[in-house]
């Protein structure tokens, strides 16, 4: 047996008499009448970072660590330092578009990748020099 998706409810407005003196209106589930939502209840999803950044006090432009990322490109860990450079550029673009949360997050990732690249590059250079001197 398959149930119906419509029901009868006592709603004010356009009603018809059912013979008992009570007004009822037959409606479908998808067509329930509801009052308009207030602007604060329109979206229940996560607010965009641009909306949340306007409520927070301005702390200045987030850092993108572009100089550090460019410096890390001289280390011999090329896939890692190029990704750090890309994150740094993405951080700069996000900051220019006003997305401070995204710019901070991308800037931290660029800093992390650049530092790891510099450390690994230094280790590779030291190992290469120490092994070639023997």
UniProtKB/TrEMBL annotation:
TM region positions: 65-89, 110-131
Alphabetized UniProt keyword annotations: Membrane, Transmembrane, Transmembrane helix
Ranges in coiled-coil conformation: none
Region (Disordered): 1-21, 35-57
Cellular component terms (Gene Ontology): membrane
Subcellular location: Membrane
UniProt KW Membrane keyword: yes
Biased composition (Low complexity): 47-56
First-listed, main subcellular location of the protein, grouped into a coarse class: membrane
Family note: Belongs to the CD225/Dispanin family.
Entries under PANTHER family matching the protein: NG5 (PTHR14948), TRAFFICKING REGULATOR OF GLUT4 1 (PTHR14948:SF1)
This protein's name: TUSC5 protein
């Amino acid at each position: 047996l398959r149930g119906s998706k419509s029901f009868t409810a006592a709603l004010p407005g356009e009603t018809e008499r059912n013979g008992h003196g009570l007004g009822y209106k037959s409606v479908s589930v998808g067509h329930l009448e509801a009052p308009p939502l207030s602007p604060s209840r329109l979206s229940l999803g996560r607010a965009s970072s641009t909306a949340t950044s306007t409520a927070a006090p301005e702390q200045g432009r987030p850092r993108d660590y572009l100089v550090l990322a460019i410096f890390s490109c001289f280390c011999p860990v090329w896939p890692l330092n190029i990704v750090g450079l890309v994150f740094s550029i993405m951080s700069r673009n996000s900051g220019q578009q006003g997305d401070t949360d995204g710019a901070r997050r991308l800037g931290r990732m660029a800093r992390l990748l650049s530092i790891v690249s510099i450390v690994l590059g230094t280790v590779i250079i030291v190992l290469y020099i120490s092994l070639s001197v023997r």
